[in-house]
Amino acid sequence: MPSKYLIIGQGLAGTLLSFFLRKEGIEHDIIDKGHVGSATMAAAGIVNPITGRYFTKSWMFDTLLSALDSCYTELSELLDISILEEKTIYRRLGSPLAENQWSSRLVHEEYKAHDGGMSQINEIEPAFDNEYYAGIKNGRKVNIALLVSTYRKLLKREGCLIESTFDSSDVDFQSDYIRYNDESYQAVIYCNGAAIEHDSLWSSIPMRPAQGQSLQVSLDISPGWIVKNKYFLAGNPDGTYWTGGGYHWKERSTQVSETFIEEQKKWLNQWLGKWPTILDKRAGIRPCTPDRKPILGKHKQYDNIYIFNGLGTKGTSLGPHFARIMANVILKGKPIPEEVDVLRFY
Ligand SMILES: Cc1cc2nc3c(=O)[nH]c(=O)nc-3n(C[C@H](O)[C@H](O)[C@H](O)COP(=O)(O)OP(=O)(O)OC[C@H]3O[C@@H](n4cnc5c(N)ncnc54)[C@H](O)[C@@H]3O)c2cc1C
Q: In the predicted model, what is the mean pLDDT of residues 293-303?
């Protein structure tokens, strides 16, 4: 039986899974069609410990944080790039109710590590407004687009990147191996993000893809801030800013719309009194699931077909922990936590 694996898709999911296979010395190829509509390429890479109207600590946050810190540090060393930054995230409170909500959370021990105070941030950076913002400590910003593009160069150098579009109908599925492109593989792992919604092999998964758009801009304010007002504004290490987001559940366009660009420009100008210079624009489709949990596991009918997908809106934090679990499932037959098992959709 062949001992080589085939990963479909080299977004964040495919890249992280490849990294964990590589650590175990497992031979594999990755096929990717070139990141069109890739969520990873459009993302800010923010890891936000506290989310939602009720200021709730993110699901499994402490476990995910320790996994992501060590994984992205190892990847930075392997690729000789700097991608991981620890950040305080400033979130506009906007009402006494929100201020009370955040204050009441801070009574609990598990929230205290994230208390970065409440302040008018224009006292530190005059460009911002005079509203009250909660400083949320222990966030991260990870340059996942740089990670994926640099890892791609490594795959190319090592001859394991197939730059092409994968089509399930070209695969010869045998009981204990698969044939694709004149090559035999022990198994294939679908890491193809939102494109999974069009694959008949996985039609029982009720994906809820969400398109989002982003801009890279230069702005005349001090570098490095991550601020959530109406949208996120997130500083990059080179002094530029990422801005955007938005959830368009029915949209599948991979183009950034003029309406979005105008809206962002207007918002930044109203908020900061400055017009941004636009350096780049991207649109991506997030592979979201109805229960907002990732999808790991084996196809119900075929033993040599796996899936690692559903990273949704939080791939940066979910990716490292669950990619390691997925590698252990494939290589060592370890069990899959029930709440993320693909079998929940059958
Ligand atoms: C605007 C925006 C902002 C975001 N901000 C954040 C954030 O701040 N923090 C956070 O954690 N997450 C964020 N996300 C979500 C995050 O981007 C995703 O969770 C994550 O990137 C998903 O990775 P993925 O590899 O599953 O999918 P993708 O990045 O979409 O990768 C899928 C890959 O599969 C390939 N592919 C698909 N079909 C085929 C085929 N048939 N043949 C060959 N290749 C194929 C594609 O080329 C692509 O490279 C954001 C997303 C968007 C759109």
A: 95
Which structure tokens are listed for 178? 């698969």
Q: Are 114 and 136 in contact (CB under 8 A)?
A: yes
Tokens in use for 40?
């990873």
Q: How far is the CA of 258 from the centre of ligand 1 (A)?
A: 22
Instruction: Please indicate whether residue 35, judged by its CB atom, sits closer than 6 Å to ligand 1.
Output: yes
Residue type, 97: L
Q: How many CB atoms lie within 10 A of CB 40?
A: 27
326 lines ligand 1 (CB under 6 A): no
| Entry pTM | 0.98
- Determine the topology of domain 210-286 in CATH: Alpha-Beta Plaits (3.30.70)
pLDDT tens sequence across 111-132: 999 999 999 989 888 999 999 9
Q: Whose CA is nearest to atom 10 of ligand 1?
A: 314
The verdict on the CB of residue 193 being under 6 Å from ligand 1 is yes
Homologous superfamily (CATH) of 5-42+146-206+290-345 is FAD/NAD(P)-binding domain (3.50.50.60)
